[in-house]
Amino acid sequence: MLHNGSMVEYEYRVLSFGRETRRGDIRRELTEHAEYGHWELHRTRIYIGGVTRTWLRRRIIRARRAS
Prior knowledge:
This protein is an alpha+beta fold. The chain is built from 1 helix and 5 strands.
């Protein structure tokens, strides 16, 4: 994705939840990361055995030096 002539960079965080974790608890955790950490949902995978792994990302904003 291009933004003002440069590539947008993201940082990622991976969260893992065991099969015993309820969906409501997962939703609450993801909501907290989104609201307070400005993370957005990038990908979610549910693996054989019931482990849920979720990738979150947020934009890296670089400050430009004043000329």
